[in-house]
């Protein structure tokens, strides 16, 4: 028995020695070492800084438009609808009374917490300076976050576009509001684009116009006479009332309004097609006819030319004018802004002199 046990022990010992020797040999042959940096890295996105008064991180890869761009595309009429619930606590008309909250006429550019006869919270009294567009945006987004301890319990407006509509409405309720900020080209690039394989979308490319650029309507009143000449000479097809409205519009304000569209459209003679078609000479020319641009079937099916009436309808509601087009922008709801844009587009045409 002892001989059998010795054989078994010898076999086990031999197996262990062989295993150890194999490990040493493997180390010598392979010489593995850990890399200083991991081979596979996990892609992460940098959170956006929240831009204009804190809009939080953008959920996608695109940056949220800056406040100036949002204001340029805002609608004061939508903003008026947005503040209806606020009328229980605030008045907005000139000479309006203080209620639970102070009157808000002339609030844009006014010193913070400065309305006579209203008892502000210490949180607002501690804020310095005027109600700038940026401060109003931050306040409207999160009142208690911007002025901790404020007595206003309203949770704020989380939608940046709705805040811009409200701010634009507040701006209209002012005798002498400060000028709107200029949109940044970078934000135009971020907001303009990547929607369909054929190109026509986001900013308003599809038809041949730029509805996505609702326009600030805030630049000076220059070139009105030129717009009148253009409207009377080249604005075929729109009713006489519409022609008169466009003739009295401000093309310089329209030019400011479409500044954010330059990421997707060119406006100068001979300009290239981009995400959307070149828009020079678009008025009084056949719909969906610009050479080299691939239009949606919805626009290809439209007959006739871009006259004033059709352009106004397209800018107001692209999906209603051409159901099924690829442009997702809801349109320019403010009639005056549409007319300013059309007046500018009339200038960007061969017969701009009104021949």
TrEMBL record:
Alphabetical list of SUPFAM superfamilies matching this protein: Cytochrome c
GO terms for molecular function, please?
A: electron transfer activity; heme binding; metal ion binding
Bias-annotated ranges (Low complexity)? 201-213
Q: Spans of biased composition, class Gly residues?
A: 47-60
UniProt keywords, alphabetically: Electron transport, Heme, Iron, Metal-binding, Transport
Ranges of residues in domain Cytochrome c: 74-174, 249-349
Q: Where is this region: Disordered?
A: 42-64, 173-250
Q: Which InterPro entries did the record assign?
A: Cyt_c-like_dom (IPR009056), Cyt_c-like_dom_sf (IPR036909), Cyt_c_1A/1B (IPR002327)
Q: Which domain of life is it from?
A: Bacteria
The family database entries (PANTHER family) matched by this protein are listed as: CYTOCHROME C (PTHR11961)
- Put simply, this protein is called Cytochrome c domain-containing protein
């Amino acid at each position: 028995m002892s001989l059998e046990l010795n054989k078994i022990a010898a076999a086990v010992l031999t197996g262990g020695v062989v295993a150890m020797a194999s490990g040493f040999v493997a180390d010598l042959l392979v010489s593995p070492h850990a890399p200083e940096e991991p081979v596979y890295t996990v892609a992460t996105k940098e959170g956006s800084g929240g831009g204009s008064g804190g809009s939080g991180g953008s959920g996608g890869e695109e940056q949220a438009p800056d406040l100036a761009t949002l204001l340029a595309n805002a609608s004061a009429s939508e903003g008026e609808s947005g503040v209806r619930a606020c009328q229980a606590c605030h008045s907005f008309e000139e000479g309006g009374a203080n209620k639970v909250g102070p009157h808000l006429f002339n609030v844009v550019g006014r010193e913070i917490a400065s309305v006579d006869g209203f008892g502000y919270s210490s949180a607002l009294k501690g804020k310095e300076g005027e109600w700038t567009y940026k401060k109003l945006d931050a306040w409207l987004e999160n009142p208690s976050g911007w002025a901790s301890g404020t007595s206003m319990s309203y949770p704020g407006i989380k939608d940046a576009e709705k805040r811009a509509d409200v701010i634009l409405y507040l701006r209209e309720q002012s005798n002498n509001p400060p000028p709107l900020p200029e949109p940044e080209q970078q934000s135009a690039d971020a907001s303009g684009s990547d929607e369909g394989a054929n190109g026509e979308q986001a900013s308003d490319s599809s038809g041949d116009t730029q509805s996505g650029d609702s326009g600030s309507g805030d630049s000076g009143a220059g070139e009105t006479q030129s717009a009148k000449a253009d409207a009377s000479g080249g604005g075929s097809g729109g009713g006489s009332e519409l022609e008169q409205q466009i003739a009295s519009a401000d093309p310089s304000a329209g030019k400011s309004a479409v500044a954010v569209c330059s990421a997707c459209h060119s406006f100068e003679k001979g300009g290239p097609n981009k995400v959307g078609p070149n828009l020079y000479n678009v008025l009084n020319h056949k719909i969906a006819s610009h050479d080299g641009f691939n239009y949606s079937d919805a626009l290809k099916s439209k007959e006739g030319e871009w006259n004033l009436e059709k352009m106004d309808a397209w800018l107001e509601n692209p999906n209603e004018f051409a159901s099924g087009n690829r442009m997702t922008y809801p349109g320019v709801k403010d009639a005056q802004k549409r007319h300013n844009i059309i007046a500018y587009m009339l200038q960007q045409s061969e017969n701009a002199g009104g021949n």
